[in-house]
Amino acid sequence: MKILVIEDETKTAAFLHKGLTEQGFTVDTTPSGEEGLRLATSSKYDLIILDVMLPGKDGWSVMEGLKAVENNTPVLFLTARDTVQDRVKGLELGADDYLVKPFAFAELLARVRTVIRRSPQRQQMATLKVADLEIDFAGHRVTRAGKRLDLTPKEFSLLSLLARRAGEVLSRTMIAEQVWDMNFNSDSNVVDVHVRRLRMKMDDPFERKLIHTVRGVGYVLEERA
Q: How far is 155 from 171, CA to CA, in rounded Å?
């Protein structure tokens, strides 16, 4: 899942980027309302975390710009202004939630997952099944043959990518770019290490294997006879 953070406070933006990335999200950040609106309308995001008090184009204006082009990406407002009028204004403009600074990361994470879970596009693809494997994207839960699998955020992101592209061979470069948001270094074995750890949890305990190596290319998740 991909999140855009529009926040001009450097420490807050870094805090959100680090925390959300550790939870398995791909995160883009910008301190500018103008740049944030450009990113939001040129790329696809699952959620926008939007600060109200931005220099230049403020959060209200960014929200109005999104609605003007019928961009319905869910929006979570962040603000230091805790007045009823401000909360009402944000919700009337179409925000999905409103969180007052300072906030605990645990609360923000819960709100992020709730907003994403409620969004129409996510409800259309709330779960995905491949053979006896089932992934609940909104709840970050994975089961195989009815047994709950305990995955780390990165393992969940890796499995989600493979499952959404089931039957398609994904190169190590593509996996690194999508899951780690980084350029792949051929000397790095980060992808292979995480695939091996994922296999230990979701393939090794079961007779039927779902993750397959395509030598010299990458990995594919599919059911084979």
A: 17
Structure token pair of residue 170: 């994904």
79-106 pLDDT, tens per residue?
887 777 777 777 778 888 889 888 999 9
**Domains of the chain (ranges, CATH numbers):** 2-122 (3.40.50.2300), 127-221 (1.10.10.10)
The CA-CA-CA angle for residues 25, 224, 127, to 5°, reads: 35
Total number of residues shown for the chain: 225
No. of helices (H) and no. of strands (E), the chain: 9, 12
- Type and span of the H or E element at 79: strand 75-79
- How far apart, in Å, do the first and last CA atoms of the chain sit? 31
DSSP 177: H
92, burial (CB in 10 Å: exposed 0-12, middle 13-18, buried 19+): exposed
Give me 90's structure tokens.
């944000």
Give the predicted TM-score (pTM) of the model.
Answer: 0.61
Q: Would you call 41 helix, strand, or coil by DSSP?
A: helix
What distance in Å separates the CA atoms of residue 210 and residue 214, rounded to the nearest whole number?
Answer: 13
